[in-house]
Amino acid sequence: MCAVESTKDELDSPRPTPPYVIILATALMCLPILAVCQFANVARVDDIDATLFAYYGKRMLAGQRLYVDLWDNKPPGIFWIDAISLFISGGKFWGIALVTTSAVAGTVVLFFLTARRLFGLPTAAIGTVMASLYVNFYHYHVGANRPSTFYVFCEIAVLYCYCRAFDGWNSSHRADGVQPLFGERYSARASWLFAAGVMAACAIGFRQTSISVAAAIVVHQAYLVATRVQRPAAMLRVAGLCTAGGVATALVVVVVLAATSDLKLAWHGAVASNLGYVTHSKQSNLFPREIFQLRDHVRWLGLPVILAVASVIYRIGWRVYMGKSDAVNRRLGGPPNVFALLVAWFPIAFYLALIGPHRAHHYYGIALAPLVMLATHGVWLLMRKDERVRVPRYSVVLAVLWFVYMAVPAGSEQFRNAMRAKFERFDDRSVDRWADTTAAILEHTSPTDQVHAMRYLPAVFWRTNRPQAQRYLLNTIIDQWHEASQPYVDEVIMSLKTDPPAAIIASKSDLRNMENPKMPITYRDLADWLRENYEPVEPESSGVWLLKE
User: Is 506 in contact with 543 (CB distance < 8 Å)?
Assistant: First the structure.
């Protein structure tokens, strides 16, 4: 029997960490971060749009039709998701919390799987911890009952499916140096590209401008052809399969809308009405001149911003001064020249955020995932020289400590947001802004009585579950179209007079606005008609007017 002697280097060198240990450690670090972030996002009470989506979902379960009885300028995805969530929970909000939390968990898992395919397991672990904190940051509404929660999930899913289509990229190599995208496993790769198209269409179903990752894939494919890494025919096959998935999904959406709504009104709500944002210069600008609220973004997102910027500078410098491309980890199964994909994804998403209306924080939600993925590329640049070293270098240890230091302010901000949400929702000392209005509606109307609000009050409608008397939310229409919204105002006024609702919510300031000649639109004699046909209830602070007998 022959004994095998080990060398001194083998005895002194520690064994590499098993993958399951890294995955378990990543999960243990992500779970408390996600718990804090998700509690802050779900328990918040200041997000009135989230309450509108929940209310619409509840009314759809009661038989009202989207865009016909319940009008909004968003695609149907968020309303359908909320209806399904409330159906699961019997109309309780915990169903929405369950589904949004599941979407957040799915986003983090897909981020990890994609990053592992692109950069390897250790880098993916660090990148996923960053994604858990920064992608679900409170001020950007990702994780709340918002379209952003779901279109971020869909966009990450698109990227993952696209990367899976490149499995076995190096399995065959042509004599001319050109790698074919499709080989022996054509059907498997085709299915992943078809799935990428499906998820891209789903992303648009939650927000019309959620096209950043699809546009980045187009840029990446063009880059592969231009650099002779891929033949034009392969690019056309990729485009055809992705388009087929998107078209198939769109057809399903059209069929469902035709069966449950009105296609003409759905087109007006989800597409035509949004042109008001683009055509009115005060709302949206296709050529933005500044990054609004820049100081807040840098303060919250300092770590991924620095890593992403450093990554771009380094890679451009490498390309310019070294005269060659440093391709990223083809052996892991990701697409070649992945940096071209990432460096296109973030600017496109960032531009789509800048042209959003109202210059609101949450419009940047679409840019968070590409920012963190690009930052993860920066982490890979730090760690890649240590691939064959079993003991981390000092530079890597120092970098990880710096990451923790930079993430502390963001983590502290998330914890404060969670504590504020806890106080506003669960503490007896918190002030319920709409308590009087809700109580008055519940006391003086029945569940079948229609109610109209002159202001944007989805929280009151959600709590009372009274049907809207009008499908149009005038505040939304006026905010988009300004003077051009007058026909919609006239339609609402005529409908109110023809079929008066049981109650109208109008405060003293609402009445003043209706009688203000400087308003961009005119309410005609609506204020006088209201006073003649309705009487206020106590307390007057509720703003509730009841129809006279």
Answer: yes
Please give the Cα distance from 49 to 456 (Å, whole number).
Answer: 9
Q: Which amino acid is at 290?
A: E
Contact criterion met (CB below 8 Å) for 61 and 83: yes
> For residue 292, how far is the Cα from the chain centroid?
19
**259: buried, middle or exposed (CB in 10 Å: 19+, 13-18, 0-12)?**
exposed
Instruction: State both tokens at 188.
Output: 């498997």
Query: Is pTM beyond 0.85 here?
Result: yes
Could you give the CA distance from residue 216 to residue 329 in angstroms, rounded to a whole number?
19
Distance (Å, whole) CA 284 – CA 280: 7
Q: How far is CA 51 from the centre of its chain?
A: 16
- The whole-angstrom separation of Cα 300 and Cα 139 is 9
> pLDDT (tens digit, 9 = 90+) per residue, 55-96?
999 999 999 999 999 999 899 999 999 999 999 999 999 999
Which phi and psi (to 5°) does residue 5 adopt? Answer: -90, 140
CA dihedral 479, 480, 484, 485 (to 10 degrees): -60
Strands 451-453 and 503-505, by their bridges, are: parallel
In the chain, how long is the greatest CA-to-CA distance? 107
Phi and psi of 323, rounded to 5°? 70, 25
**Residues 461, 449 contacting (CB under 8 angstroms):** no
- Per-residue pLDDT tens digits for 435-473: 999 999 999 999 999 999 998 899 999 999 999 998 888
Closest listed residue to residue 151, CA positions, set 363, 360, 347, 410: 363
Rounded to 5 degrees, φ, ψ at 453 are: -120, 135
Six-digit token pair at 375?
């930052």
Task: Copy the structure tokens of residue 205.
Answer: 């179903």
For the chain, the C-alpha Rg in angstroms (whole number) is: 27
**Could you give the C-alpha distances from 273 to 78, 224, 364, in angstroms and in order?**
18, 38, 22
Measured in whole angstroms, the distance separating CA 391 from the mean position of its chain's CA atoms is: 39
Q: How far apart are CA 78 and CA 141, in angstroms?
A: 14
Which amino acid appears at position 244 of this protein?
A
161-173 pLDDT, tens digit each:
999 998 755 444 4
Residue 395: CB partners within 8 Å, gap ≥ 6?
382
Distant-in-sequence, close-in-space partners of 354: CB < 8 Å, separation ≥ 6? 288, 291, 292, 363
